[in-house]
Each structure stands twice: as C-alpha cells, then as structure tokens.
Write a structure and sequence with these properties.
Pseudouridine synthase; 2 domains; four-stranded antiparallel beta sheet; Structural Genomics Hypothetical 15.5 Kd Protein In mrcA-pckA Intergenic Region, Chain A
C-alpha cells in the first residue's frame, strides 16, 4: 500500500488529523494509534504519513469504523449579555448569529435570555438539538448566579422543593452556595427544564436579589475558558458525550454519522 490514500472526493488529510477530528484524542495520541498498527483505511493498515479522504473512505481503529459527516456542524458559544438568542430580531438588536460565521447555517439550541450569558450550543443537527432542549430527556443545565447579599438556607431549600410560577411549578435539581465576598454570593443552580427566564423567576420567587446569571454547563459539556463573544467547534468526543446524554447512543457506532466541526 502507498503512503497516500486518496479518496474519491480528492480531499485527503493526514490520517491522524482525521482521527483527532473524530474525537479519538490529540494528534500525538492518534499518531501513536497509527504507529501501533491499529488504524486501517479501506481495510489496509496505514503508517505515519498516510492520508485518507474522511468522506469517501472507511477509516477504522481496532476494526471499528470512525464516522464523519462534514455536513453537520456543532459550535459552542460563550454568549455575552445584551445579545438575543434568535436568528433574527425585528428590533434590530444584536443576535447570537452575528457572532458566528454565516455558513454553514446553524441554529441555537434552546435560548438564553438577553441578560443571561454563558454556554450556548449552535448546530444543524436537528435530532440532537430537539433532545437537548426537550425536558423529557432531563439534560442538566447548570447556572452560576451572582446575588446581592447572603443567601439563607431556607431560600435554597425552597428552590429544591419547588416554587409556583405563572406557568406552573418549577424546582431545581440541585442548588449549592459556591462562596461569598463583599456582600455578594455565588450559587450554583441545576435545572432539567429550560422555560423562558426560568432561573430568574425562580430566584425572584424566593426573595433572592439576582445581579448576574451565566450558564456554565449543558449535560456533560462545560463552558470552559472560552472568552465572551467567542465560539469554537465541539470535538468529536464532546458530540459523542452529548449523544449519549440524550439517549441516542454513540454516533460512531450507529448509522447516524456525526462529527465535530473542523
């Protein structure tokens, strides 16, 4: 076999890059997989320096196929405040779509209200988006709230026990105080729903004076250290973790071929 494996589309990439984009690890660890003779393209073991077309060819590790589909895109955005989570805004306010490339077209998963900042997923994978947003799948959304003053134990207990909102009862899955200083307190609130301004309405219902709110995690996906207003593609491993979290199984072992944006 030659060191260059050319696919039908003519867009060959080094095999370690294909593996890394599919979430198999860093480039270095993927090079080690190749060096160990565990990687094959179209049934033939490859060596370091080999290339493969990830769309037209079959890439396997230990006999299991690594699926890729360049039509599906997954982005993580750190939404800043004063930006609305809509595709367009009739009032002309800045939207999250202004912060990402126009193509390929993706859509926000659920919403963060205008004043709330933090983790927002944007994708054109409708099946995953629907499950992440639907309360049936009980995907945890973790928020950190900065509040004025101290928080009483009974207020945290009320959030856990549930409060009555105008659109029905709501309760947190977990609540904990993270710390306090200079008349400010940070609390972590985990929900499995995503109703409009739900966290804000809940803390107001128990008398907590909210100053700032950020979503820091969705299911197994943390916000990390990405700057406000910036975005990055999800890795293949992160996409797989989200799939498993919503009961779709591992996409690399199914006919629904998913990959991270590259």
């Amino acid at each position: 076999m030659t060191d260059s494996v050319q696919g039908l589309s003519g867009k060959a990439e080094r095999v370690q890059k294909v593996l890394a984009a599919a979430g198999l690890g860093s480039r270095r660890s993927c090079e080690e997989l190749i060096a160990q003779g565990r990687v094959a393209v179209d049934g033939e073991i490859v060596t370091l320096g080999a290339k493969a077309d990830p769309i037209a060819q079959v890439v396997t590790v230990d006999g299991e196929r690594i699926h890729t589909n360049s039509n599906l895109v997954y982005l993580l955005l750190n939404k800043p405040p004063n930006v609305v989570t809509t595709v367009t805004d009739p009032q002309g306010r800045p939207t999250v779509m202004d912060l990402i490339p126009a193509n390929p077209r993706v859509y926000p998963v659920g919403r963060l209200d205008r004043d709330t900042e933090g983790l927002l997923i944007l994708t054109n994978d409708g099946e995953l988006a629907n499950r992440l947003a639907h309360p049936r799948w009980e995907v945890e959304k973790t928020y950190v709230a900065q509040v004025r003053g101290t928080v009483k134990r009974h207020q945290l207990r009320e959030l856990l026990d549930g409060v009555e909102l105008e659109d029905g009862p709501a309760k947190a899955k977990s609540v904990r105080e993270l710390g306090n200083a200079q008349d400010r307190t940070l609390i972590e609130i985990v929900l499995t729903e995503g109703r409009k301004r739900e966290v804000r309405r809940m803390v107001a219902a128990v008398g907590i004076n909210l100053e700032r709110l950020a979503r820091v995690k969705i299911g197994p996906l943390p916000l990390g250290d990405i700057s406000p207003g910036k975005f990055r593609p999800l890795t293949g491993g992160e996409v797989r973790a989200l799939y498993i979290a919503v009961g779709l199984g591992d996409p690399d072992r199914s006919t629904g071929q998913r990959r991270a944006a590259s």
